[in-house]
Amino acid sequence: MPLPALRGTMAITATSTSAAMQPTMLPDVPATAPERIAPDTWLIPNLAPAGDGGFLPANSMVIRGREPVIVDTGAPVHREQWLEKVFSVVEPEDVRWVFLSHDDGDHTGALFDVLERCPKATLVTNFFSVERLKIEKPALPLARMRWVEPGGSFDAGDRVLKLFRPPVFDGPTSRGLFDASTGAMWIVDSFPCFTPGPLDADDMPQELLAQVMPALSSAISPWHAWLDPAAYMRHVDAVEALGARTVASAHGPVLRGERLDDAFDRLRALAGMPIIPTPGQELLDTLLAPTLAEAG
Ligand SMILES: [Fe+2]
Ligand SMILES: [Fe+2]
Fold it and tell me: Residue 296: what pLDDT?
C-alpha cells in the first residue's frame, strides 16, 4: 500500500514519507522482532516512520507447520532486516510455500531472495499478479507456481489454507489467507493503522484506531463511496464468518476479540460514505517550509 500522508482527521500525521523511501534513512524506528501471534503463526513486523511519533507497519507472516509457509515478502526498504527476521523463525531449506497476497511492491520486496534461498518452495499466486509483475520485475519461474483464486485453498501438510478476497484492498489481485486449524488470518492491506509502536491493537490508544483505521481504509479503497451498504455488508459478513480469532494485517495491528469486531464494524460503516480526503498542497507546503526557510 503506497501510503499517502494523512492529516487533519487524526492525531498522527506524516512528515517524512520521503525518508521511508530510502533504506539508509530509517531513524528512531522502534526495534521489532518476530512475534508468535497464534499457534505455529509468527508476525514478521517492520515499521516505517510516519511522522509525529507514528509508524506505518509493513508486516508479513510465517506459518511454521509441517510445510512452512512464508506469507508475503516485505517491503523493499526493509529487505535486509526482513530476511534476517524471517529466517530466524524458519530455515530457508524448510520453506515449502510462499504465499503472495498481491503484487504490490511493499509485499514483494524480498520475493526473489526467497525463491533463490528456498529451493523447495512453491509460490502461491495468480494469473493477474504474474501478468502485472511481468512489467516490473524479472520473469518469475512458472514451474514453481500454483495459481489459486479466492475460495480456493492449498494443502500445507498439516493444514489447509483457504484464500479469500479481503474486505478492502488496493490491488485487484489481493487474496487473504485463513488457517482454520489455528484461527489465524492474513487480511493483507485491510485494517490499516499507524502505530506509536505497539503491534497489538489491545496495546494501542483506542481513539487512534477509531480515527485512523477508517481514514487509511478510505485512502486505499476510496471506492467505498459507491458501495451499496447491504451488498458490501454481505461481503464483510462472509469474511467475518470465516471465524478468525487472530487477524494480522500488513499495515495495522494484530486484532482479536472486541478490537476485531470493531474493525469489521468500521468497515461496514464506510459503505456509501463520502471519501475521507487525503492531505493536499497544504501539507506539502508545511513539509517544505523548514527547507525553504533555511534556503531563504
Ligand atoms: Fe497493496
Ligand atoms: Fe500493502
Answer: 79
Query: Which ligand has an atom closest to residue 75 CA?
Result: 2
% of the chain surpassing 70 pLDDT: 91
Question: What residue spans define the domains of the chain?
Answer: 19-289
In CATH, the number for domain 19-289 is: 3.60.15.10
Query: Separation of 266 CA from ligand 2 center, angstroms?
Result: 19
Give residue 108 CA to ligand 2 midpoint distance, Å: 10
Q: Render pLDDT for 117-152 as a digit per residue (tens, 0 to 9).
A: 999 999 999 999 999 999 999 999 999 999 999 999
Reported as a pLDDT band with limits 50, 70 and 90, residue 10 is very low
Write out the residues surrounding ion ligand 2, Cβ under 5 A: 1, 106, 189, 250
The DSSP string of the chain is --PPP--SSSS---S-TTGGG-TT--TTPPP---EEEETTEEEE--EEEEETTEEEE--EEEE-SSS-EEE----GGGHHHHHHHHHHHS-GGG--EEE-----GGG-TTHHHHHHH-TTPEEEE-HHHHHHHHTTSSPP-GGGEEE--TT-EEE-SS-EEEEE--SS-SSTT--EEEETTTTEEE-TTSS---BSS-SBGGGS-HHHHHHHHHHHHHHH-GGGGG--HHHHHHHHHHHHTT--SEEE-TTS-BB-HHHHHHHHHHHHHHTTPPPPPPP-HHHHHHHHHHHHHHH-
pLDDT of residue 6: 58
pTM of the entire structure? 0.91
> Ligand 1 centroid to 27 CA: how many Å?
24
Average pLDDT, the chain: 91
Q: How far is the CA of 59 from the centre of ligand 2 (A)?
A: 9
**Span from the CA of 229 to the centroid of ligand 1 (angstroms):** 23
